[in-house]
Design brief:
Blueprint lengths: L2 H44 L4 H49 L4 E6 L3 E2 L10 E6 L3 E2 L4 E3 L4 E11 L6 E7 L2 E6 L2 E2 L6 E11 L4 E8 L4 E2 L3 E10 L5
Antiparallel strand pairs: 1-3, 1-13, 2-12, 4-5, 5-11, 6-10, 6-13, 7-8, 7-11, 9-10
Helix pairs in contact: 1-2
Main location: secreted
Subcellular location: Secreted
InterPro entries: C1q_dom, Cerebellin_Synaptic_Org, Tumour_necrosis_fac-like_dom
């Protein structure tokens, strides 16, 4: 059982206990009210000097008012606790619904391709697209729900290509980049960049490359992402 579920159960127990206490105090208040009314009627029938009895009745009436005040306070506390419990229960239900929604994608570039340096890299081989957040035609991921995401981009380029930089972009703003370096064997250059990013539902993420001259990418280039933690609303 998670800590949230344990807190949920604890609050349920407190609400039940408060309801029982309230019912007991309400019954006691009614009984005292009946006793006071009965004593007053008896005093009227007795007549004579009964000032001391009147004082006792007055004290009893004061005690009754104190009990009524305690009942009112308990009722208000019960109402506040019930509202807090309701909000917590809604948040818990919402979190379970969000947690049950998986989001993730994996897209590869499997053929030699020229790069559009002004727009997103579009990958021609989508291995998975859970939650349908990745737009296959545009090469752009759109967050279906708010939360914390992980994105990874890996790029390979021929050794004959010029220097290049690879970016991960969120809504048009660069959030991370990586520069490829030539391998010792001269077979090409590779780089990987990654970012853990908090996104609101609807924000867009893509990979972009830049080069001084023409740049061509080898097969094996990939872009992937996944939801790590959905956002939980505070009650």
């Amino acid at each position: 059982m998670t800590s949230l579920e344990e807190e949920n159960e604890r609050l349920r127990g407190l609400v039940d206990a408060l309801r029982q206490d309230y019912n007991k105090m309400a019954d006691e208040s009614c009984r005292l009210q009946e006793d006071v009314s009965g004593i007053r009627r008896n005093l009227g029938d007795l007549g004579g000097d009964n000032s001391w009895v009147q004082q006792d009745v007055s004290d009893l009436h004061t005690s009754l008012e104190v009990v009524k005040g305690s009942v009112a306070t308990l009722l208000e506390s019960n109402s506040q606790l019930h509202q807090h419990f309701t909000n917590l229960d809604k948040s818990f239900t919402g979190l379970k619904e969000k947690s049950s929604k998986l989001v993730g994608f994996q897209a590869n570039l499997t053929s030699l391709s020229s790069v559009n340096t002004r727009g997103p890299l579009v990958f021609n081989d989508v291995k998975s697209n859970v939650g349908n957040g990745y737009n296959i035609k545009a090469g752009v991921f759109k967050a279906p729900i708010s939360g914390i995401y992980l994105f990874i981009a890996t790029v390979l380029r021929p050794s004959t290509s010029g220097d290049a930089e690879v970016y991960i972009v969120v809504d048009g703003t660069q959030v991370t980049k990586s520069v490829p370096y030539e391998s010792e064997t001269g077979e090409g250059a590779s780089c990987t960049c990654h970012v853990v990013q908090k996104l609101r539902a609807g924000q867009k993420v893509w990979t972009r490359a830049w080069s001084v001259g023409d740049i061509r990418l080898l097969g094996g280039v990939s872009f992937s992402g996944m939801l790590i933690q959905p956002e939980m609303e505070t009650p």
